[in-house]
Amino acid sequence: MSKRFIHSINYMRGICMLGVIAIHVGSVALLNPTPNLELVAVLEILSRFSVPTFFFLSAFGMFMSQPVEGPFVYKDYLKRRLRTVLVPYVAWSLFYMTYSSILSHNASIFQPLAFIRTLWYGLAMYHIYFLVILLWFYFLMPLWRVMLRGMNHHPWFWFTLLFAGNVVFNFYSSYVWDFHSANPFLQDAFTYRLNYVVLHYLFIFLFGAFTAEHFQATCNWLSRHGLLVNSFQALTTAGMLMAYYGIMATLHYDALSAVFTIHQLSPIGMAYTLSTILYLLYWLECHRVPPFLHRFFSLLGDYSYPIYLVHPLFLSFLTWSAAHFHIYLRSLYIIAIYLAVTCLATAFSAIITWLPLPKWLSICLKGK
């Protein structure tokens, strides 16, 4: 299909960015000894679709520009993608490592082994591991092209099988597998497996690739099955909330333990991510979007990458300020922090986008 600009995909980038910020602000809400469970449910449970959906969107963009039946030069492709992801990853990792060292008055993270470990696993800041996984997806692009070419022949069968296999793998990785080794390198490889093992997000990534290859057919199917899409979304949303409240009521988990249990890699979390992607595509692509929402989601979508990179800095500053001034983080303050982080990160992104920056600095800050 033609490589037209697809507004619904850009809207989804903005919506997912709001979800990512919500998850990180939710971590602040959980610091409260008696957190508002309903607010935590919104910030930490219902926003869980956002991280895996970004893998869906990344695959969509990759395969929209490089369809499996078209020409593909791996070296040229990798060069472009590394400039977009690897350079900002290294630049922002160095920034956050320096930032953390200054705050903690401890520069041990720059010792050779610690430095390599931090960059290898994406440990410079809690959000940046996403780019490590994305880089592995990029490096393995020839494999995904071969897989998708085969899956295109019987997509319902293959994607159903892949979803089921991914649910089983993620269940064991999240809840069952355990490993202890005296070798620190092996222990790190296991401990930080969620930071680099692409198998955790394989279904959602390949589904994004398939959607790009068959976008119009997918939208036609969605437009004919609106009731099914809406029902699926309602069912999985209810499932996420029931699981969250249920394990606190029956297993007596606290809110933090519940959040660590009901996440995007849990079985209900994977179903919820899939239903939310279909739901958003249905409403954003198959229906008219009001002009004010178009402007709002387009703005967030356009700036989503630099917002993602910078928002922990503003969150850190605001939470430090709250602690410094002895502000008790009630629900109202948590919501205010969320809005402030979103506005400040968006303003920063707008400024660096419109400033005539040197090319090297522009690539470091926002991959362009």
UniProtKB/TrEMBL annotation:
It is a multi-pass membrane protein. InterPro entries: Acyl_transf_3_dom (IPR002656). Its main location: membrane. This is Acyltransferase. PANTHER family: O-ACETYLTRANSFERASE WECH. Keywords: Acyltransferase, Cell membrane, Membrane, Transferase, Transmembrane, Transmembrane helix. Residues 6-353 form the Acyltransferase domain. The chain crosses the membrane at residues 12-33, 45-64, 85-103, 123-144, 156-177, 197-215, 227-247, 267-284, 305-327, 333-357. Belongs to the acyltransferase 3 family. It is found in: Cell membrane. One of its GO terms (molecular function) is acyltransferase activity. It comes from the Bacteria. It comes from Megasphaera hominis. Pfam families: Acyl_transf_3.
